[in-house]
Amino acid sequence: MWKRIGALIVKEFIQLKRDRRTLAMMIMLPVIWLVAFGYAVNFDVNHFRVFVVDQAKSEDSRQVIHEVEANEEMSVVDRGTEQEARDALKYGKADVAILFPKEYDSIAKSKEQQLNILVDGSRLFTAQSAVREVSEVLGDIQKANMKELRQNVEERFKGDEAPEVKLELPPDSPLAELPPNVTKDLQNQIKSQIRAVMKEQMEEQKKELEDQFPDPEYMAAKVEVLYNKDLKSVYYMIPGLMGLVLIFITTFMTALGVVREKERGTLEQLIVSPLRSVELILGKLLPYMIIATVDFLLVLAVGIGVFDVPFTGDLVSYLLMALIFLFASLGIGLFISTVSQNQQQAMQLAMMTLLPQFILSGFVFPLEAMPEWIRWLSYFMPLTYFLPISRDVALKGMSAWDHPVAMAMLAFFAVLFLLVATVRFRRSLT
């Protein structure tokens, strides 16, 4: 029995050796994925661009700004007004804005002295990390200032009772001739008055010191989350999920559909038919394009109707962007079909193409949390450019045209993939 099993094992290895593409994928792909994804799977953003609005221009505000600039994880990219800060967050020029009101105090005692932080809620994990980092810097400053305040209190006020008053009359004083009991009563009255005055002064000192202590309610910074005030993860995920659905369905359907024709032998029948190559390509692609468009509209309707994702932006430009993205996805699927001999190979290549886009595009893990070299890989993926447009249209009320670079890159990928895939497909027909 073992001899027969051994012979079968040898046969399988011989087949794998002949199919070098599959063998290489089995050996190298897990290593590549482990290295790339191991660096990419990270929710913690470690660098933030800070916009500063300093209305106080005080020693306290300068101290906070200095600590922010000294922090390796933050850099001040601009300064200006509150409206300019909001615009910087809207258009992705800053990750967090710090607003110092005119009466700002690092150990705030009122709302007017409280620090304000603005973050972009459409970038969920970046917003959470930015608030945490700024709060840590502010907390360190407040601890140091509170320690100094306590030391001042201990030095200026060490008891809660007025000190004992000693009053003695000189021998040559006219009051010394008075009867002892009268003199004693007079001394006691004077002592009481002195003690009352001293106690009143100490109470005033006490109140003055108490006024210097902060109000815990205003010690923490006030955080204003823009565009997704409740930081709902569904608002973050649904706009990205639309792109993921598009690229998965389109790539898989196109790749498998064309390869299926090869396996069945019907592609040869189409080749000898009167159809020109352009007509054949369009005839194969358009059905999948129509199905993917319907799927996209259904997902969009569910996102708005079921999950209450606002989509307050320009839907016309958004749909146009989705069509461009759809053409790029069709090109990927068609290209995979031209280099695959069977459906199994097509599925393997499709997964090799799509899984990195799921991990590295920013769909789940923020690009800002990835190392630089991993981020460069993401720039070659169409989904990387779809996601920011989709989220900004949904949550910020923007237009797809507000992202000219992303739109241009999607158009470039659409033309490139379709052109390369069409050339290879036409060669396979001849």
Automatic annotation (TrEMBL):
Subcellular location: Cell membrane
Molecular-function annotations in GO: ABC-type transporter activity
Name this protein carries in UniProt: Transport permease protein
Bilayer-spanning residue ranges: 21-41, 234-259, 285-309, 315-337, 349-367, 405-425
UniProt cross-references to InterPro entries, sorted A to Z: ABC-2_transporter_component (IPR051449), ABC2_TM (IPR013525), ABC2_TM_bact-type (IPR047817)
Entry coiled-coil feature ranges: none
UniProt xrefs under PANTHER family: MEMBRANE COMPONENT OF ABC TRANSPORTER YHHJ-RELATED (PTHR30294), MULTIDRUG ABC TRANSPORTER PERMEASE YBHS-RELATED (PTHR30294:SF29)
Keywords: Cell membrane, Membrane, Transmembrane, Transmembrane helix, Transport
Keyword set includes Cell membrane: yes
GO CC list: plasma membrane
Cited Pfam families: ABC2_membrane_3
Entry similarity comment: Belongs to the ABC-2 integral membrane protein family.
Membrane topology, from the record: Multi-pass membrane protein
Organism: Polycladomyces abyssicola
Domain ABC transmembrane type-2: residue ranges: 195-428
